[in-house]
Amino acid sequence: MKLRRAIKDSRSELELFRRRALAGFALILLGLAGLVVRYATLQVSRYDEFAARSENNRVKPIAIPPARGLIFDRNGVLLANNVPAFRLEVVPEQVTDMQAMLERLGQVIPLGQDDLDAFRKQLKQSRRFESVPLKMRLSEDEIDRFAVNRWRFPGVDVVPYQNRRYPLGELFAHVIGYVARIDADDLDRLDPASYKGTTHVGRIGVERSYEDMLHGTPGYELVEVNADGRTQRVLQTHPAIAGKNIYLSIDARIQKAAEQALAGQVGSAVAIDPRNGQVLAMVSVPSFDPNLFVDGISQVDYRSLNTAPDKPLLNRALRGVYPPGSTVKPFLALGGLELGLRTPADSVLSTGTFCVPGTTFCRRDDRRGGFGTVNLRMAIMWSVNTYFYKLALDMGIDRYDDWMSRFGFGQPSGIDLNGESSGILPSRAWKTRRYKTPWFPGETIIAGIGQGYWTVTPMQLAHALSILAGHGVPYAPRLVMATQTDVDAPKQPLPNPPSGPSVIKSPADWQAVVDGMQMVVNDPRGTGYGLGKGFPYTIAGKSGTAEIYSRHTDAYNENTNLAYLASRHRAWFEMFAPAEEPRIAVVVSLENGAWGASSAGPIARKILDAWLATQPDAPPDTPLQPGSLSSPDVVSRAPPNAPASGASAPDAATDATPDAPQDEPANASSQENPP
Amino acid sequence: MIEMLHVRMKRLLRRVLTRPRIDLPLAAGLLLLAVAGLCTLYSAAAGDGGTTSGQVVGQAMRFVLGFVLMLLISRIPPSVLRNWTPWLYAGSTLLLVVVSVLGEGRGADRWLNLGVMRFQPSELAKLTMPMMVAWYLHPRQLPPRWKDIAMVGVLIAVPAYLIGKQPDLGTALLVAAAGSFALFLSGMAWWRIGLLLAAAAGMAPVAWHFMHGYQRGRILTMLNPESDPLGNGWHIIQSQIAVGSGGAFGKGWMHSSQAQLDFLPEHTTDFIFAVFSEEFGLLGVCLMMVLYAFIIGRCLWIAMEARETYSRLLAGAIGMSLFVYVFVNGGMVSGMLPVVGVPMPMVSYGGTSAVTLLVGFGMLMSIHAHRKRHD
Fold it and tell me: Do β-strands A59-64 and A219-225 pair in parallel, antiparallel, or remain unpaired?
């Protein structure tokens, strides 16, 4: 048998197979016999033990859902809590005729169509012996009426539970989000063991992103049941562990002030502490009442929210993408210095028009005839397009793209919320991917003034601004600063180390750019002059106005009607203070603002005022601190829009002639502006 | 063309009805099993209120469909099956890839939606796997040597891996076992088998490393059921109580208190054998084992009578894989093996597994009917 057969030998193969089949059958019989032995052990040797356990098997484990963690602002203002409530539940297998029962029950407790729809949907997804909630938050009257009629409805019961409430409603809707009933999609991703007995789960916002901490661990109790499966008494209780409480870094007072300053607008505001990335305020208006979603929003409410032209459900701070316009100029200026392309003293002659050398591709300045010879500080102060067209062209799109990405442009800011948009930072690779066409130099100069393909979210710009304000040290924005196992327990801070080394090499470069930015606010020639008035610290800032509609001509727009302009412009203002050692960086974005400085600027200033009021070490209210270059004759040109006078007041620049240094949006012809 | 097809279909149908090529002992065994399964289901579903008759009728309909398919398949000669084999194998593997890319399902992505019905390609693999191994080995020199064994190993590993990562460990196990049995029956030397098993045992820690958290949990729970009183541990404890309290002669049909009082979860599907054991006791378990042993023995008998290698290996592998169902499910219900989704054949409710089994037995009947001919 040692010799291998050269050809197939069917007779010996058959023999081999027969031997194998018999051996296999023997093994199988052995296996089945082993199984029988196992059953004999259980059924004969240990019969008494199991018979007794079966006889006394009246104990069932029942899950106890954990209490959800509470959410507070940084000072302990309650933002999300749990309120005891009662709901109606149905065990399907104990109901003989569901339709008839629902009709009879509807005469005792009014059941809305939304309740019934949600109930039927969940009925299909759950098992027949598991109870399904029918109506949440019963009124006392409803509970009483049901108690009297209870005998008529076997399988239906009133069950206590904890209902999530958001006392401040709309104010924090876009930050905290809301919890909602667990649905089929949730069932797929949640661990069934830790959600046994839980009816709600964080759907969006902090409620969603911190679900693991807020949820807690369920406990269970062992209950004795009778022959019908009804609970007789509780034998043992293993309590649930409540979810952790969460402290936001947001200060409700600043949040409130930001919301009030934005009232009636469509837009958003974000304030970040550049020293640690903590978000101090994040507002998107219009907003919505998150309490509507907790027990399943009604069709009518949802439709009206979803189809409202102002899109109240859209979190503009996180998901609104807009061209950044002139707000990117300080970043570009800093890049010019850091990459060795410019010194602060280098000047450029602004004649009113700038052409790409060797082509007829020309773009204009905001002032007819230009601004004359401007250096870096003046270029920021006046928002001189020519300066930045030329700088962007000298830098080239590759270095430009690399430099801007260090400030987080084109990427999610990394905030502790889900669903953030990343905006678009255009590059050669991006354009090839998106349009399958090469990059043109003309597009570089347009990128230099934050137009063209470039889009950012307000959160992204606030993140970038806080990196700039914080001397280049990047921190991912954080909404949650501490957790707590119990209201009396000490708070445990959540660390947020810098996400990388400083992106700025030279403090002198930083100082030059910040000088230019505080001239924007404090120099009478600045586009945002007046916004720093009456504030004890020096404010640095930059306005931005981007066009919604693409331009077809290079003509100057002579229409100065504010409502007309508001319908065509997106207004930005970025601002931080104190300019020397920044502690707060604010970005305000308006979807319909006439001008960055006059529409968005005063809102940003109000947020700074609210922040100042929360600072225990605020210096006494001193008059406007003169900046290094600002003229002392501020009074003579005092604009009517002192910060307190309201958002719609025109600022110094707006009521000047069209030739005034106006932060006019850059032009971009239709083929350069992606839809 | 269509008329010709029509005539041929008619002729085939007439032959199926007038001269069915069935193996009477095997058919009788299966019928007995089906009846026992339906009776157990009737009792197990009784506690669920309302839907009892629905479940039993649904299961009976599946059996009818399975038996009709069995009769139809028995008309297809083994040589035709053999020629189709590579295509069927490639097709089922492709479907598994499709499922893993765009599958839909609750938790485990193992279903493919065909519009009218949802379809589980892993069921198909249970049949195409032993077919493919038999097809690969039949023209080759037997017993197989390392080169062929390695090739068969790849043929088994690809579908088994795709099913295992769905994740459906139970079906992956069944599919891999069916292929391995064909290899075993081909005469693979015992020392090679021993070596491979030793290597597999050595790989166990690596497998543990790659397991899903819940799969590890199930193994740990089996070792200590009290550690997980809300989840799988509860299943195991309640299942053991059901089995043990049945005693030697059982509590009698329709008297399973564990299932009726709803202490036993999944008592119509994966854990139905606990209800059977509670109601019919050790005596019932022994009779059931004898019935399964008889069916498996008959399959191996048919395999031994077959004249050529492909039919032999296929018939033997299908018969032997029935044992894996019984052993894994029986072991799980009695707390001897971890909880994996393997049904008790022809007894557990639902799924397409009974239909798949009967289609496999259809192939056996065809092999039996063609035993006298050379091809």
Answer: antiparallel
